[in-house]
Design goal:
The chain is mainly alpha-helical. The protein has a domain of 82 residues: Orthogonal Bundle (Arc Repressor Mutant, subunit A), CATH 1.10.10.10. Helix content is 54%, strand content 12%. It has a three-stranded antiparallel beta sheet with strand order 1-3-2. Strand 2 and strand 3 form a beta hairpin. Helix 3 crosses helix 4 and helix 4 crosses helix 5. The chain is elongated, with a radius of gyration of 20 Å. GO terms for molecular function: DNA binding; DNA-binding transcription factor activity. Keywords: DNA-binding, Transcription, Transcription regulation.
């Protein structure tokens, strides 16, 4: 069991090859923490709605995001502040209007995998 860390080497495995495959499938701790933080951002329905809207229509203003998502402007602004701090979205000034766009490629890839089935009336 060449991939098992020394501090766990004394423990018994049922299938050593499977254990090594599992260890090989786990990213470095820093990468795991990064993905966990990304999934945490996506775990809130309002944040996910804002992200999906920005991904699809960005660059987009807070007012337009509030209208599109049904979330009040103050809440949208708070969500965008969190997403900016995390490096997920970026703000672009357009005169007096600030528009937001998705800048995190990994998050964009995840959002691409979400099926969006909406009937337009």
């Amino acid at each position: 069991m060449h991939l098992v860390p020394e501090d766990r080497a004394h423990r018994r495995a049922i299938d050593e090859h499977t254990v090594c495959d599992a260890i090989a499938g786990i990213a470095e701790p820093e990468t795991v923490r990064g993905w966990a933080a990304r999934f945490s951002l996506l775990s809130d329905p309002n944040r996910l709605s804002v992200l999906m809207a920005v991904h699809r229509a960005g660059p987009i203003a807070v007012t337009d995001l509030a209208l599109a998502t049904g979330i009040n402007e103050t809440a949208v602004s708070q969500i965008l502040r969190l997403l900016r701090v995390s490096g997920t979205v970026a703000a672009e000034k357009d005169g007096r209007i600030v528009r937001y766009r998705l800048v995190d490629a990994e998050t964009a890839g995840l959002l691409e995998s979400i099926p969006v089935l909406r009937q337009v009336v």
